[in-house]
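P.,

For your records, the input lines for the assembly:
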Amino acid sequence: MPAITRVLVANRGEIAVRVIRACRALGIETVLAASEADGDSLPARMADRTLCIGPAPSSSSYLSVGTIVEAALGSGSDAIHPGYGFLAEKPELSQACIDNRIVFIGPSPQHIRTMGDKLAARQAAAGLGVPVVPGSELIDELSKASVMAEDVGYPILLKAAAGGGGKGMKTVYRPDDLEAVYREAAAEARSAFGDDRLYLESFIPNARHVEVQVLGDSHGNSVHLFERDCSVQRRYQKLIEEAPAPGLSGNLREKLCQAALGITEAIRYENAGTVEFIVDQDKGTFYFLEMNTRIQVEHPVTEMTTGIDLVQEQIRVAQGDAVGFSQGQVSAKGHAIECRINAERPEDDFRPSPGRITRWEPPEGLGIRVDSHCYAGYTVPPFYDSLLAKLIVAGNTRMEAIARLQRALANFHVEGVDTTISFLSSLVERADFIAGRVNTGWLEKVASIGGNHR
Amino acid sequence: MPAITRVLVANRGEIAVRVIRACRALGIETVLAASEADGDSLPARMADRTLCIGPAPSSSSYLSVGTIVEAALGSGSDAIHPGYGFLAEKPELSQACIDNRIVFIGPSPQHIRTMGDKLAARQAAAGLGVPVVPGSELIDELSKASVMAEDVGYPILLKAAAGGGGKGMKTVYRPDDLEAVYREAAAEARSAFGDDRLYLESFIPNARHVEVQVLGDSHGNSVHLFERDCSVQRRYQKLIEEAPAPGLSGNLREKLCQAALGITEAIRYENAGTVEFIVDQDKGTFYFLEMNTRIQVEHPVTEMTTGIDLVQEQIRVAQGDAVGFSQGQVSAKGHAIECRINAERPEDDFRPSPGRITRWEPPEGLGIRVDSHCYAGYTVPPFYDSLLAKLIVAGNTRMEAIARLQRALANFHVEGVDTTISFLSSLVERADFIAGRVNTGWLEKVASIGGNHR
Amino acid sequence: MDLNEDDVIQIIRYLEESDFNELRLQIGDLRIAVNRSGSLAPLPEVDQATATPTPLAYSPPTPPPPPVEELAPAPVSSVPESQPDAVADVDQGQLVSITSPMLGTFYKAPKPGEPPFVEVGMVVDEDTTVCIIEVMKLFSTIKAEKRGRIARVCVEDGQLVEYRQTLFLLDPDVD
Amino acid sequence: MDLNEDDVIQIIRYLEESDFNELRLQIGDLRIAVNRSGSLAPLPEVDQATATPTPLAYSPPTPPPPPVEELAPAPVSSVPESQPDAVADVDQGQLVSITSPMLGTFYKAPKPGEPPFVEVGMVVDEDTTVCIIEVMKLFSTIKAEKRGRIARVCVEDGQLVEYRQTLFLLDPDVD
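Structure tokens returned:
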């Protein structure tokens, strides 16, 4: 495959900036596909060229496969980087790239399709001997759901087969609630994905979310880059991610990484991916959850501990290069933590707070990295997600990283829009967080009693 | 009057950048009033705040007095700088500022009104003993025009009383042409200014356009900052301006400057203004033409020779300060020339060439100044004038300045839009220009025979 | 920093056994807030399955005592009870904007003190007046121009709004 | 630069008395192009009124001879006869745009080789098809949506156009 010379960046916000930086470092030109609302964004200023692909609503711009491919062809781009979200995990874009002889910087449409169907992915993992959460096949009718739920044992979790981002996902604590919650989850799944197929799993109350970064190339090489802990979540949206996972024994860590690598090798996965697991803290066991076939928001924590630039690796393997290192050459040093700074009002149920940023002073210094597309004078449009910046800190130890994170948050000054900065500040001072005593339900409990936490 | 703390910049393009820079130097905050088409412009990025005041067409944005004043009030601006063009010479804005206790950085509505009526200005100058071009009062009917024209002597120039920018201005060479040309000029004046009143003047075939920069304050002080020559014009639009005026004797220069200062003092003019004269090269005489009650596009040549920042002076006198120097302290050193770089196709009758600038490399170095709002990636909107940049060079002598200008133009690289750069390059190499042998008709003759000039 | 993670955890455990509901301290660079009412049970080493279910029910919050020990000024963030609004459950992508047709001053009500034209949750149609925009004493009533449920009022009464600035977010799915 | 302005003017005069229609030279840093056909009569010192009317009529241009002397490479700009188009006499501010409703490839004619849908000077109304925009083999015909005279075609056939990019400028004043 010839070397990539010009990349169409089919995304916005901080990840568009991140991709442009990676391209620059590799001497590759960039063309940004921007909606009308993003014409004056930082990535639009940074890219060698910006094309206005449509109006603000993403359905007519960032989610339009035909427009994105036409923009790549018309601008002479030989590759497309989809970032995360939008079209990143739509097999249609990956397929359209193949059809039009454009390099898709991501996996094949087959890999996206298999791993995008949560049930198919679950079956694939189980077939490889990786433990999956006790649960069911597809539920084809409600009457069967109650039998399946009794088999698995309450509480159970209903999940959308086409799912992601927590949509269509509901916990059922008692048999009496099943029918109502089932209808609710199916409606939500239909509205979010146009697909109301559900399945059910055992609900693990004291769980941590631990995921393993993997990378595969077209030469059959696969490596893992160790794990990340993303247990601090609100409505299945991650807020704080760290590496290595706190409180995970070396034995369990090794098992998780090997399970992830096994799946990657078995399906001959190409490009960057993440294998997500649930760790049951009460039983000391782990289960395969799903595989994400994209670069993830939280990839910088892995970059900070391993020293490997994941976006550059994505581009290299997409153009046919071998992964630039062997498994033995990957080592993780120190501790890294990422916080997502969102334009939201935590005291108002985290409702988005779009608007004009009048002050933007991110922290600087040793061990501090800020990935962002914001600047003083930037208007956060109301059409997209509310991520303003990712604050990533690294330290030799977890305690050093936390202390640095506390200082960095205190020195992060934003005005004009409401942000989650002071909420995160109070969060990372909590003894539970510092002692590593959290699970995936922790944040919502803390936030709901937060009114009395000063 | 209290010191200005926040200025609403009611303009776009390079002059908006120029005003923002002057405010910054004085520690004054800026709010930019930008149309929807200019939301991602360089001044919008530079200003402390940008307000979108309306859609692209200037009639609904930059020309809307109410919106501009509302924007100033709503943003807490205590002053408005109108730049040039748009509302700069509309007495309505100056008046609305007074009514709303906003400082207008420019003259009073009375001064704008008097000098904006070309006939009233002419009468004012004549009343002060300044020679005016032989000509008529207002022509109230066509039948009288022929008598007046015979009085003055053909060729004559028909001019709009409300005129400016050459609109409604027509030369009549023979009595037979008078009626047709009169109707044409009146129609043009009506369409451009909503006012078809005309007057006539003797047409001076071998004329130079020489203007004097003046400055007055609220304490009764008036100074002049010497003259500029703007004879290289196309359809009454200046292309090259220089200071001092070449080929002007010391005697004539002194007379011009004193006449300009006399008018400024007599009307107790406040803020920056320009008194324009016609110099008849055949007779060695000069005539008052009009007074412009704004900062002008070509003000930098005066700044380069006198070392005085005219926009900062505008702001200072507007807030009630006295002019920062006496007449005796003003001296002009060396020679400065300005070229207007426009997005136009000279070979296609200078038709505008809006579009995306893909390469923008202005020249740099000793004695070179570029005032511009452009950058690589900027899209020149099709709605406004085509000025991309002003290239200003200074040298110890006129010959040094011309040589520097030639090199600077050769090193000015713009791609993506057509520009007048290479046309200007060929112009400033011409022996006529170098020898100072030009008049206000020179450029159009050169351009029309330019096809054979290599 | 010389502090060892195990030391920190020991200190936290010791504090949790004390009588305070909440306290804050700083050890070296690290700031720690101990809040017994919001705290989980100690975390076992997950690989050594202790099979002790962690209770997920929390006791109702108690009023906070004054801070007992505060070694360094710490920014305090107030996180009141969550107050879901009409937007929380609606996908942002589905909302449509009502934008200002001009720059001017936004007024939510016909006159000061009167009820606003619209509020969150109200269904509007094309002809519903949603606000007034004033430009230099010229008052223009603004219509919704589309049908939907008001999901958010994006500007404050009396605020300067720009041309095309979003005034309201509307959920068009009202059927 | 040591060159005096008077010296330069003397050199120019000397050259103009020679037989060349046009020549170029470089003196120090300064480049000079002498073109007799386009040259004005010598300029008198304006204060000393010589009362010699300067002829403003120019002889028709003669074909340029090859450059006789070229001391340094000089960029050559071609300035052909002016070709007024429909835009030249129209105030830019009065023109309205027809913009592209989508990103895609612009085609000016129904098929390659066929005459374009519209040309400069043509009057179009709301329903006149002005071009085709292609997105991935999907061809959309674009209507003018407003009445006016085509003043400029702003894009080239086969060119990628962006969403909202101006395709044509229209002079609405056709009555």
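Two observations worth noting. The CA atoms of residues 217 and 270 of chain A lie 5 Å apart. Chain A touches chain D at residues 36, 51-55, 61, 66-67, 69-71, 74-75, 96 (CB under 8 Å).

Regards
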